């Protein structure tokens, strides 16, 4: 007989009254920033605290689902109440919230339970647990009534079992369309605001590297902290098997910053998007005026930073410059490289990212001493706006002059922009070898099955041509 799970934390984590809950969600979504991503959104990591604490970062992530056709939402959440081993699948029936009832995707839950012992069917373990329940009203608000859920509550699980669960989930989802994976997790829990910021920065960076083994081992060693990290490992495994190649930080905050109370207990919250590069994904088309504006932002930012002046404020005229894109700024002096720093993934507005990486290229490139005020008139500026990296398995896909390369192996990674290969007249194999060297790896590392190879394209322009 199918079951109906009634809300356990309505009236505590979120309002129990339908109207009050709807009004609160409307307010959260109106207050949350717009963080567009490039590519196909297949996954989100969102927090699960009370809405007054983590509602805005959660809404920032869920805002990306508005207008999308989603049939099934798979939700990983940690068990805070009952200890058990494995991943508990809520098998059938429906879940109720003050906004209505959402049905279980019984076909998918049945497939998971039958294909792997990593999954066990249980209603009991889900009772009273909040980590999955608090996600449902957000989903109802953005998707309406025409979707189903697959609640997956994660207990104590080994790394091999998490990887197996992710593989099986990806296998089942390969036969479907219009799905999204939600990973429910808060970050640091403790009594130090400074420690919270430090831990959360490390945790977010580790998660965004998309290395399941590294995430798991770092959590076990206590180097990173997130209560839902085991579900994140399984979710990322499934997402990577489904083509996801990049992650974008949408919003970070913590309970201290939300409440203004910087002493006492503090919990970290982040919203992260997991993206598959769209087929034929292209760099943005910028007008000559938009290019000049970005170059002016880079130049003024560098000049102020080098002179020790406050960073200038910018209000870009074009909405394109407020979109999230990866970007690198290259500084040259008399045609020779003087600094180059960038963001591979677009996790902040392009104009802000350009400002930040321009300053870093001038002051923080470890290959060069900081730029001095006397050098400023001699600098030229080049900006590369990047598409999201796309993982490849066949190096024959690499086109010299079109593609930049990102190589990852364990904790090592290196990137070379598309223009590097043409400027130095490299062959494809030479380009791959030099990217290995940039990662701190030996030439030829790209031939190893342990090495991940990504390509991207870039819109490249400089002050000599703008």
Describe the structure.
The protein is of the alpha/beta class and 466 residues long. The protein folds into two domains: 4-276, LigB-like (Protocatechuate 4,5-dioxygenase, Chain B, 3-Layer(aba) Sandwich); 288-462, Glycoprotein, Type 4 Pilin, CATH 3.30.700. Helices cover 33% and strands 24% of the residues. It has 13 helices and 20 strands. The strands form three sheets. Strands 1, 2, 3, 4, 5, 6, 7, 8, 9, 10, 11 and 12 form a twelve-stranded mixed sheet that branches. The chain has a four-stranded antiparallel sheet with strand order 14-13-15-20, with helices on one face. A four-stranded antiparallel sheet has the order 16-19-17-18. α1 crosses α2 (51-62), α5 crosses α8 (229-241) and α10 (288-306) packs across α11 (350-363). The model has no long low-confidence stretch (mean pLDDT 93).
SSE order and pairing:
Elements: E1 4-5, H1 18-31, E2 40-46, H2 51-62, E3 72-78, E4 87-89, E5 94-97, E6 100-104, H3 106-115, E7 119-121, H4 135-143, E8 148-154, H5 159-173, E9 179-184, E10 189-190, H6 193-208, H7 212-220, H8 229-241, E11 246-254, H9 255-259, E12 266-276, H10 288-306, E13 326-333, E14 336-343, H11 350-363, E15 379-386, E16 390-392, E17 404-409, E18 412-416, H12 418-423, H13 428-438, E19 452-456, E20 458-462
Parallel strand pairs: 1-5, 2-9, 3-8, 3-9, 4-7, 6-8
Antiparallel strand pairs: 2-12, 4-8, 5-6, 10-12, 11-12, 13-14, 13-15, 15-20, 16-19, 17-18, 17-19
Helix pairs in contact: 1-2, 3-5, 5-8, 7-8, 10-11
């Amino acid at each position: 007989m199918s079951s109906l799970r009634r809300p356990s934390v309505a009236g505590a984590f979120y309002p129990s009254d339908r109207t009050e809950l709807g009004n609160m969600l409307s307010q959260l979504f109106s207050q949350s920033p717009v963080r567009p991503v490039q590519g196909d959104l297949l996954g989100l990591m969102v927090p699960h605290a009370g809405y007054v604490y983590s509602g805005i970062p959660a809404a920032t992530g869920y805002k990306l689902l508005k207008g999308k056709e989603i049939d099934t939402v798979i939700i990983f959440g940690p068990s805070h109440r009952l200890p058990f081993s494995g991943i508990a699948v809520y098998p059938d029936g429906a879940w109720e919230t003050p906004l209505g009832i959402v049905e279980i995707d019984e076909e998918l839950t049945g497939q998971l339970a039958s294909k792997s012992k990593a999954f066990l069917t249980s209603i009991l373990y889900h009772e009273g647990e909040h980590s999955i329940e608090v996600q449902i009203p957000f989903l109802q608000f953005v998707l309406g009534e025409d979707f189903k859920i697959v609640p997956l509550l994660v207990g104590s699980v080994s790394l091999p079992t998490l990887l197996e669960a992710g593989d099986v989930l990806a296998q089942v989802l390969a036969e479907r369309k219009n799905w999204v994976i939600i990973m429910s997790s808060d970050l640091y829990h403790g009594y130090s605001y400074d420690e919270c910021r430090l831990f959360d920065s490390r945790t977010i960076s580790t998660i965004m590297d998309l290395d399941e083994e590294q995430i798991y081992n770092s959590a076990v060693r206590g180097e990173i902290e997130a209560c839902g990290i085991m579900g994140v490992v399984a979710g990322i495994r499934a997402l990577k098997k489904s083509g996801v190649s990049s992650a974008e930080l949408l919003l970070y905050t913590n309970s201290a910053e939300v409440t203004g109370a910087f002493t006492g207990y503090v919990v970290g919250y982040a919203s992260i998007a997991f993206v598959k590069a769209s087929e034929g994904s292209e760099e943005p088309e910028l007008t000559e005026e938009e290019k000049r504006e970005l170059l002016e932002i880079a130049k003024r930012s560098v000049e102020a930073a080098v002179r020790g002046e406050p960073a200038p404020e910018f209000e870009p005229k074009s909405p394109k410059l407020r979109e999230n894109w990866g970007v690198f700024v290259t500084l040259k002096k008399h045609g020779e490289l003087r600094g180059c720093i960038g963001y591979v993934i677009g996790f902040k507005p392009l104009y802000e990212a350009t400002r930040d990486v321009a300053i870093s290229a001038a002051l923080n490139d470890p290959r060069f001493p900081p730029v001095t005020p006397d050098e400023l008139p001699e600098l030229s500026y080049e900006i590369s706006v990047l598409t999201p990296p796309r993982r490849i398995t066949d190096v024959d896909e690499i086109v010299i002059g079109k593609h930049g390369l990102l190589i990852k192996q364990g904790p090592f990674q290196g990137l070379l922009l598309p223009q590097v290969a043409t400027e130095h007249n490299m062959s494809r194999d030479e380009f791959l070898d030099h990217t290995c060297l940039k990662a701190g790896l030996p030439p030829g590392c790209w031939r190893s099955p342990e090495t991940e190879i990504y390509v991207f394209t870039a819109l490249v322009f400089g002050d000599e041509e703008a």
